[in-house]
Write a structure and sequence with these properties.
By secondary structure, this protein is an alpha/beta fold. The chain folds into three domains: 236 residues; 153 residues, 2-Layer Sandwich (Alpha-Beta Plaits); 257 residues, EAL domain (TIM Barrel). It has 27 helices and 16 strands. It has an eight-stranded mixed β-barrel, surrounded by five helices. The protein has a five-stranded mixed β-sheet with strand order 2-3-1-6-7, with helices on both faces.
């Protein structure tokens, strides 16, 4: 395998520039004349200026505005440096360029600090403290002596003394940048070192300024030349993109990095008092005032730090107890509340503690069809409505994706009123984004009297509310149920049933029976429906109506369906081989909607047909209308592929589900099975007869086959024949029987006239 191509290597401009800078510095130091010096300086400084302006074009730096500002600052400094030796008599001309340079540099740092989110109250206070200390030191040590130099304007001397102060402020800002960097990218190190070099150079100028000079030798500019080089390297290095983003949360208010800034600053007044403090009373007053201001700032900073700590503590406590999406209390908080309510409930009073668990119906469907954002919006809106619906003092919590919990203390009528209020929240559709979602909620209620261990009672209450909520879900959307002890038994029974079914499936405890589907004209079978049977070792036969839903819930329907299908296909192959059935005979197999959600089903069925050597046309699959009415894209694709294989597709229990029949045309169904509830009414209910007649007319028009189910009497059979139904199944001909019995009664070569003898237990009614 070829390795992924490495990104094109950035040309090491910064390296070339760094080397050029060092060479220029050497040349400058040992250089032959002032022209060469000027050239060296101008080249490097111009390189830096250009580098700064080009950064935003070369790299995706953020914020884009910062680097051109730095370039402008570098330009100002360059002008200042060029002017200074030329205007020794009027140094203010050079300062007129240099001072704006400092301001621009300050702006540059502010932009970066702002972008990194590292301007905070304590950072600003730290800056003030450092400025006070640095300012005091530079005024007393540099500016004041310079101001006493005779024969030149005071402003020149003071400016010379103040440059180091500017640098201290800038350095403090640069160091602040490093506080929000996990690693120090080369760009950052280079930049901060450059600023430190400027500080050194300015200090040197200030020191000569004390003796009244504003310019001494080109050597004084060496630090500036190196600073230019470093700032240029900083701008050209690829890591410059990291400068604008903070890669870790700002450090603690009292980190060691900050202390290394603060301790020298706080010590400054004391050191000054011991050194130059003796000069005059005015000096001592100034030092005292600055010292006091520094202490005041330190105290303010300490108070702010404590406040921030408390706020952070409160914030994290709130977060630990609340749901971030809705701001409602979370499970932890409401559990504590329920425990508190139980502990405080007076024993002997009629009141009980109630817990209501609410789960939105079809929330997963909303999430799947509109995306999680819409799901979140829906939850937020539901939370808002619920909050407005529950009385003040009643705690409402979000305890899961679409689950809410509410507590209540009182009697049953009160609790039911609350449930009504809550259900009322879903009366109107919820507008989310540009749609409106009709949503309902299933609610489970549980209650407990006073007494008992609050923690244990709470746990039981939450579990019972959950059980009751699932009960509600089982009864359809928008229901509410109060927990009663029998539900536990039902849950336990269901769990036991699930385990037993698993065993039966694994150990061959299931069988398949076959019920004939006859041609009404002849009374001879044209096909058969396979029906699964389970004989529980202790409880005897368990009807499929009981265990199929359990299998669907427990994820067993897929293996169960596959087993039945293989059993049935195997049987069909055998019957076809031994002549029990003829070529036209078809076998009908039930499939659950969940099976049709599996995109692999057609391929699996195709392989099975091949394995048993059965043509697809001899197999029908029966599915309920729900598959086609609310089945998504997968079910539709699966149905088309199955039909393409040549299988017949029948709509089971036709007429019981949905009134919209458009799906009959949209899906490739080949026939319908009229539900036995309509057949039962034949000969008695004119309405049922009408329905059957309508189904026959419609199916004819659509070219669909018709099978009538549950035919028990001759009267029903005759009524069906009169309406034009051609195929039927039911106890009139016989229930589902074992393969052996089927062959015995219904073999193609046995010509038994009229209905076959019925199996024990089913009495013909007609
Ligand atoms: P269904 O598909 O409607 O199956 C027909 C049901 O009607 C069967 O009940 C059958 O025994 C019963 N029946 C047949 N003739 C008469 C009659 O004349 N009168 C009356 N009252 N009932 C009659 P069974 O076997 O209990 O199956 C119940 C349901 O269980 C089936 O309804 C089907 O939905 C499901 N089922 C059965 N076997 C399977 C299977 O292998 N896979 C799946 N997914 N579901 C199955
Ligand atoms: Ca069926
Ligand atoms: Ca049916």
């Amino acid at each position: 395998m070829r390795a992924a191509a490495a990104p094109p290597r950035a040309r090491p401009w910064w390296q070339a520039f760094g080397i050029a800078g060092v060479l220029a510095t050497v040349l400058y130091t040992v250089g032959p004349n002032s022209t060469a010096d000027a050239v060296c300086f101008a080249v490097i400084a111009a390189g830096t200026v250009v580098g700064c302006f080009v950064v935003p074009l070369r790299f995706a730096v953020r914020p884009r505005s910062a680097w051109p500002v730095l370039g402008a600052a570098a330009l100002c400094f360059l002008i200042g440096v060029i002017l200074r030796p030329l205007v020794t008599s009027r140094p203010l001309l050079a300062d007129a360029a240099t001072v704006p340079g400092y301001l621009l540099l300050g702006v540059f740092f502010c932009i970066l600090l702002w972008a990194r989110g590292s301007i905070e109250r304590h950072a600003v206070l730290d800056g003030l403290i450092v400025c006070l200390a640095g300012g005091l030191a530079s005024v007393l040590l540099l500016a004041a002596p310079a101001a006493t130099v005779p024969g030149r304007p005071a402003v020149v001397s003071v400016l010379a003394g103040l440059y180091p102060l500017f640098d201290v402020v800038l350095l403090a800002m640069g160091i602040n940048l490093t506080f929000t960097a996990r690693s120090w990218p080369p760009s950052l190190v280079s930049l901060v070192t450059g600023i430190a070099l400027i500080l050194t150079g300015d200090l040197a100028y200030a020191i000569i300024g004390v003796s009244g000079r504003t310019y001494a030798s080109p050597l004084l500019d060496v630090p500036f030349l190196l600073a230019y080089t470093l700032i240029g390297v900083s701008a050209m290095h690829p890591s410059v993109v990291e400068m604008g983003r903070a890669d870790r949360p700002p450090v603690q208010a009292w980190s060691w990095q900050r202390m290394t800034l603060l301790v020298p600053a706080v010590a400054t007044p004391f050191v000054l008092l011991l050194t130059v403090g003796g000069h005059s009373f005015a000096y001592r007053m100034l030092i005292g005032a600055c010292g006091l201001a520094i202490v005041a700032l330190l105290m303010l900073r300490a108070i702010l730090a404590v406040q921030a700590q408390v706020a952070a503590q409160l914030h994290s406590e709130f977060q630990a107890m609340h749901d971030p999406l809705t701001g409602l209390p979370n499970r932890r908080m409401i559990t504590t509340e329920v425990e508190r309510l139980i502990a405080r409930l007076p024993v002997g009073g009629g009141a009980r503690v109630w817990v209501g668990l609410l789960d939105l119906d079809g929330f997963k469907w909303v999430n799947d069809s509109w995306g999680h954002d819409t799901g979140d919006q829906l939850v937020i809106e539901v939370a808002r409505r619920l909050r407005a619906a529950v009385p003040p003092g009643t705690m409402l919590a979000r305890v899961g994706g679409d689950e809410f919990l509410v507590t209540y203390v009182g009697d049953e009528p009160g609790a039911l009123r609350l449930v009504d209020e809550i259900q009322g929240c879903f009366a109107t559709p919820v507008p989310v984004r540009d749609t409106e979602v009709v949503i309902t909620a299933s609610i489970g209620l549980a209650h407990a009297p006073a007494g008992g261990d609050p923690a244990a009672v709470t746990e039981a209450l939450l579990r019972d509310a959950d059980t009751a909520m699932y009960r509600s879900k089982g009864e359809g959307p928008g229901r509410s149920t109060i927990f009663d002890a029998s539900m536990h038994d039902r849950v336990r029974e269901r769990i036991e049933l699930e385990g037993a079914l698993r065993t039966a499936l694994a150990e061959g405890g299931l069988t398949v029976v076959y019920q004939p589907i006859v041609r009404l004209e002849t009374g001879r079978p044209t096909g058969a429906e396979s029906l699964v049977r389970w004989n529980h070792p202790e409880r005897g036969p368990i009807p499929p109506m009981t265990f199929i839903p359990v299998a669907e819930d427990a994820g067993l329907i897929e293996p169960l369906g596959t087993w039945v299908r293989n059993e049935a296909l195997h049987q069909l192959a055998q019957w076809r081989a031994d002549g029990t059935v003829d070529e036209d005979f078809y076998l009908s197999i039930n499939v659950s909607p969940l099976q049709l959600a599996d995109p692999q089903l057609p391929a699996t069925v195709e392989a099975e047909l091949r394995r048993y050597g059965v043509p697809a046309s001899a197999v029908a699959l029966e599915m309920t209308e729900s598959v086609m009415v609310d089945g998504g894209g997968t079910a539709a694709r699966v149905l088309y592929e199955l039909r393409e294989l040549g299988l017949r597709l029948l709509v089971d229990d036709f007429g019981t589900g949905f009134s919209a029949l458009g799906y009959l045309r949209r899906f490739p169904v080949t026939g319908v099975k009229i539900d036995r509830s309509f057949v039962a009414g034949l000969g008695e209910s004119a309405e049922d007869e009408e329905i059957v007649r309508a189904v026959v007319a419609m199916s004819r028009a659509l070219g669909l086959g018709i099978v009538a189910e549950g035919v028990e009497t001759r009267a029903q059979r005759d009524a069906l024949a009169a309406t034009g139904v051609t195929q039927a199944q039911g106890w009139l001909w016989g229930p589902g029987v074992s393969p052996g019995d089927f062959a015995l009664h219904w073999a193609a070569d046995r010509h038994v006239p009229g209905p076959a003898p019925l199996a024990a237990g089913h009495q013909p009614l007609g």
